């Protein structure tokens, strides 16, 4: 404001809340000191939106997503005060709680006391209803706890504070409150500010944010003449845009070296965005001191970006292949980041969106698609005519093994090789299945395909099929019948058994989406060999099928190889008959890439493509399709389907069925454990299988292991007892017998842990390992729980038992009676003024729970645990930091395995050593008499 005269400054302050804020009022800062404020980046953006709307003469509707403690509520109150001083207004403040609403009204009152702007005689008066000024402006407050808040009256100003924290269920819910108060706001020169920190991907604030536009998009709409009524304008500032969010002292050289040594992948991404070492140091300090060491809590308090729902089988490209969204897991790597949250959002009406080239997406009406060229996002319901961004699928980084349970519970595994993919691709094009008979048809033009398929059949099945030549069809048939073919193809999902007879199931098999690129290539080669052809002199490659969904999936697979095609309806004619269907056309500009990346199997079709480089230019330009496409259809009809959401670590977007879409925004409940470590653990676990069976108590009191080859039994064992190793049994019992029933009953978790050790012979450092457990889920009651604990403890050499005692007193008593060693801990006693010994843990004590879970978190992050139990890994992925900072299972999930493990790891130093018991042979009572008689008979 330097160099401005008082008159110029007064004129600026009259039109700009930011200028008035900086020059005419004082506030109490974070240290409770009275100071002249300097507007920060968020406050300046809020003022800009307000000034723009007032200059255009349109109602100001502003929705603000803010980090914690950056003065957003303070400045929103100031805008409301400034507007009320400028024009006679009736205003209301509604916050999540009545006390917070009162605090905000006091801010408005304070501005009226300290304001030195020459408004004229506008005296402040306190009334029983709130505040009023002599110019007619008046102010009142209410809270979201009152669902009738704001009903009646006509107002020009509305400040909605911490809107995302308002109740979202029952009578007192945010949508009901907003529906009551918003109609009372005039459509003229009015202002509404809804501001909040993020709080979950639902409710009025979240849904309104999804539909809001930024300032640039708002101006573009105005310039294009689009009149869509009152528009909400969103305002956001990331945590690193605030000057105070950095360490005051410069990071020293040795600190920088240490930070570089310990930098994480997430921090590397921040550095690439221009984050300074001082800002990164401040972030680390805040995570450690205010967020309990949780990066996820920091993300909720201090968001980086303004980050709904897809059908369960929507394909998402991950490093494990193209997976249905319902199978995507926390930690899966996508092309633009890592999945940090997966949530099932229930059943909602699902609509289909289709593009001009044939890509399709099934989603809720309000799910947002990314516009091409950086134009933001558009809701599915509004997407027709919009050009959206496409994304090529990525294929698995690892070979895929299809697993299933065969007859008698036998575990079956089939690696999907290139040979299998080639055969299945051809089968999907020119194959059939009738009853137990598998058949492939080979055209007479491609005689070289017959020996190729015979050789493939022999390698895969170990048999040679029968041959049959049709007289008039100009083709050969290879066929063989066996119940083994039927069982295998049923397990692979390649047959349809819904009718009277088994038949071929047409489509891209689910396992193909999970295979690496060379395997997918062979599938496409076999498929196009069967049902594809090359147009004259290689000008185009075409593929035909009666099934539209099949063609759309093939179109998506081709995109993964950089081959662009179009889908169109066609009617094939053969011998006077018409066969309506669908055709994929790969035009001249991409035919060369098709032959280079994929190609055909037969010599004839491959040779037909050689002419593609010699086609004379007919004056037409090769069509360039690129990674964008126009939406041409939105299905108004919808059906209730299960839908899912993802949240990404970096950009707020991901690829779904080849179309870029928006991900969740500020979802509460982030993973409590290191995702990368859990993914590494899961990768190791996939190659390890457990032995299953029963532990049997003998009359002597010893315990023997009775394995079962059919996969049955109530015990899983990854490592039997080893001499010299130390073991511990841990148990987190269910909350009571009455809690082990119902839709989502509580469970009991019992596991045996082997302490880590170093083997000097092999030089291997063995991690602490979960070596055995009672099979999950286990809903047994007290005596059954005690029985499992006693048998496991004795089999592992009398291993010590640590148990959660709040709900396990009966189990503790049974173990004590049986002589099982129980873990005891020292607990301070206020009554006797010293420490006393108590059994096990009481995880209802927040401090004990926090200590145990924190220790487990460190162990997982440092990969100090060896766990091959997939049930355990799933629970660890679903264990999150809730919005209140408590670590717990995500809704609908369980945490019994996690709490059992936390107790075990925290108590691991008490593990007991296993020594094999050697029983001395008991001699007969008359052994010595017989010995004397024998000696005498031999003359001794």
Could you characterize what this model shows?
The chain is of the alpha+beta class and 940 residues long. The chain has five domains: 6-237, P-loop containing nucleotide triphosphate hydrolases (Rossmann fold, 3-Layer(aba) Sandwich), CATH 3.40.50; 241-301, no CATH class; 310-391 and 627-671, Endonuclease - Pi-scei, Chain A, domain 1, CATH 2.170.16.10; 401-614, Homing endonucleases (Endonuclease I-creI, Roll), CATH 3.10.28.10; 678-913, Nucleotidyltransferase, domain 5 (2-Layer Sandwich). 31% of the residues lie in helices and 26% in strands. Strands 37, 38, 39, 40, 41, 44, 45, 48 and 51 form a nine-stranded mixed sheet that branches. The longest helix has 17 residues, at 98-114. The chain is flat. Residues 612-616, 664-669 and 736-744 have low confidence and may be disordered.
What keyword list fits this structure?
940 residues, alpha+beta, Rossmann fold, Endonuclease - Pi-scei, Chain A, domain 1, nine-stranded mixed β-sheet, eight-stranded mixed β-sheet, 26 helices, 31% helix
SSE layout and pairing:
Layout: H1 6-15, H2 17-24, E1 27-28, E2 34-35, H3 41-56, E3 60-65, H4 72-86, E4 90-95, H5 98-114, E5 124-127, E6 130-133, E7 138-143, E8 157-161, H6 174-181, E9 191-196, H7 203-211, H8 215-223, E10 233-236, H9 253-262, H10 265-272, H11 277-289, H12 295-301, E11 310-311, E12 315-318, E13 321-324, E14 333-334, E15 337-355, E16 360-363, E17 368-370, E18 377-379, E19 387-389, E20 401-405, E21 411-415, H13 418-430, E22 431-434, E23 437-443, H14 449-461, E24 466-469, E25 475-481, H15 483-491, E26 495-496, E27 503-504, H16 517-531, E28 532-534, E29 541-545, H17 548-559, E30 566-574, E31 577-586, H18 588-597, H19 603-608, E32 628-634, E33 639-648, E34 653-656, E35 659-662, E36 670-671, H20 675-685, E37 691-697, E38 703-707, E39 715-717, E40 726-732, E41 749-754, E42 757-759, E43 764-766, E44 768-774, H21 782-795, E45 800-803, H22 809-817, E46 824-829, E47 834-839, H23 846-861, E48 865-866, H24 870-877, E49 879-881, E50 887-889, H25 896-906, E51 912-913, H26 927-937
Parallel strand pairs: 3-9, 3-10, 4-7, 4-8, 8-9, 40-45, 44-48
Antiparallel strand pairs: 1-2, 5-6, 6-7, 11-33, 12-13, 14-15, 15-16, 15-32, 15-33, 17-18, 19-32, 20-21, 22-23, 23-25, 24-25, 26-27, 28-29, 29-31, 30-31, 34-35, 36-49, 37-38, 37-39, 39-44, 40-41, 40-51, 41-44, 42-43, 46-47, 49-50
Helix pairs in contact: 1-2, 2-4, 3-4, 4-5, 13-16, 20-24, 21-22, 23-25
